[in-house]
Amino acid sequence: MKAADLAVRDVSWTPAKSPQPVLHSTxxxxxxxxxxxxxxxxxxxxxxxxxxxxxxxxxxxGQVLVGGQDIWSLTARDAATRIxxxxxxxxxxxxxxxxxxxxxxxxxxxxxxxAAGKKDENVVDGVLxxxxxxxxxxxxxxxxxxxxxxxxxxxRALAQEPQxxxxxxxxxHLDVRHQLEVIALIQKLGLTIVVSLxxxxxxxxxxxxxxxxxxxxxxxxxxxxxxxxxxxxxxTFQVVAQREHLSLSGASHFSFSxxx
Length: 260
What we know:
The chain is an alpha/beta fold. It has helices at about 45-55, 75-80, 100-105, 120-130, 145-160, 175-190, 200-205, 225, 230-235, and strands spanning about 5-15, 25-30, 35-40, 60-65, 70, 85, 165-170, 190-195, 210-215, 215-220, 240-245, 250-255. This is Iron(3+)-hydroxamate import ATP-binding protein FhuC.
């Protein structure tokens, strides 16, 4: 798997029969191998942007380019070899084993109903090993914990051998330990990654760049330490935000309160 640049140029999207865009003109570029965090209040347009990035919806304006190529100039099969997504919605009880689910990631590389070949199995084995899932390979998906399920879904995406990985709220509904496991996984994948997060402090800790959205409008894009000012966070989330610098680690942490 080799990471690629992701360029988003003037993309916007408006639902059918609606006069108001859900996502207004948005432009940014992520260099290969960097992690972008997309943050903002509920209804900000985060999920809409992600759907445009993994080619579920076509933007009404603009382009999404991976490695300089417009994803809508590709067939769906070819696009699936460049972009993979892990969504919030998971089936609660796949009647499949972990290995069978991860093998589904090889579908874009097979013709018709052809069975998985040796290369496919080698890729599956490699991904299972990378994500420490070999011991769970023959377990039924429904018997796994939330954190284990999330790792399996990431493994299925990695089996596509994508250049760009999209993660929609990957820590949602996970306990603290499993959240930390998923974040550690994100940091070591080495792909170009776009991840939507509710936790602003987590985004600042994990991401190389942050895109802030509010009411479908971009509010800012850049490295979190430079971009995330008290005022910008306060205005975006309608809370009183104050960044505190931690003397021992040198990191910073936002605390929040309601406005009086």
